[in-house]
Design goal:
Radius of gyration: 22 Å
Mean pLDDT: 85
Number of strands: 14
Distance between the termini: 52 Å
Shape: elongated
Largest sheet: 7 strands, mixed
CATH architecture of the largest domain: 3-Layer(aba) Sandwich
Helix content: 25-40%
Low-confidence stretches: none
Length: 253
Amino acid sequence: MARRLIHRTTRRLSVTDEGLLFYRRCRRILDELEEAERELAGSDGLEGTLRIGVHTDIISGVLMKAIGELLTRAPKLKVQLRSGSSFIEPIAAGLDLSVYVGKPPPSSLIAVRLGTLVWSLFATPSYVTTHGAPGTPEELRDHECLRILRDGQEQHWSLKRKSGRTKKYAIAGRFETTDARALEQALLAGLGIGVQLRSKAADAVATGVLVPILPDWQWSSTPAYALLPKGRTKVPAVRTLLDSLTKVLTELY
């Protein structure tokens, strides 16, 4: 082989970029070989290790529910979940699939639409008891809106009804931060009205920790796709997880 796969010194060995790529491709070939053997043996294929990549912001109870249902159905299956602050390229990371938020750019990956991610407004019951809830988007300017600091102060939120046009509404509030996690904790602590991914807030709403604000309106929505290397859609565990994710996202939307 003309390529160097390993750097060797007197003290250590390290894999080169070419070596890592070669290893990951070989692993996928071996995974497909194992899948072929399971098919010949009459197995349902729900075994081995399923490797998934997701953006940190969309890790939610809904995602974990889909994974939990899969693990319950397949006692021989293991799941590895890798998260990051940006899209994780599945081939480079050696994953079976990676979730992409938005319309994916052209590539050699297979794109499977999972559904629509929706961001809506929420608050704690204690906030609503103390301050009341806005009846219209125009009333947001009289409330404590939790704002993110990005390229200046948030002065407006763009809201729309499910089938309507987006319109900007003035907001006010005394808490703002550059950190999305701090914003989420401020929401849960009852500091004001905040924007939250609907699938992420579902469990909190079900248990009474949060209540929807202006439920007929949404802050934003965007499609979600699973991007997979060629051939991975044939893996039973991958197909089953895709079906489960599509189902729960459709129910939430």
